[in-house]
């Protein structure tokens, strides 16, 4: 349970960064 919100935040950040780079 420790990688709940933070983990999702990271994934969202990475996804947004990838979309930005594309």
Order of helices and strands: H
Strand-pairing-aware structural class: mainly alpha
Overall shape: rod-shaped
Largest sheet: none
Taking all residues together, what is the mean pLDDT? 81
Strand percent estimate: under 5%
Q: Unreliable runs, pLDDT <50, ≥5 residues?
A: none
Q: Counting H and I runs of at least 4 residues, what is the number of helices?
A: 1
Helix content: over 70%
Distance between the termini: 32 Å
- Number of E strands: 0
Task: Please tell me how large the radius of gyration is.
Answer: 10 Å
Description:
The protein is mostly helical. Helix content is 77%, strand content 0%. The chain is built from one helix and no strands. The protein has one helix at residues 5-21. The longest helix is centred in the middle third of the chain and has 17 residues, at 5-21. It is rod-shaped, with a radius of gyration of 10 Å.
Attribute tags:
22 residues
Topology:
Elements: H1 5-21
Quick rundown:
With 22 residues, the protein is mostly helical.
């Amino acid at each position: 349970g420790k990688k709940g919100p933070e983990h999702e935040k990271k994934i969202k950040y990475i996804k947004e960064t990838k979309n930005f780079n594309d």
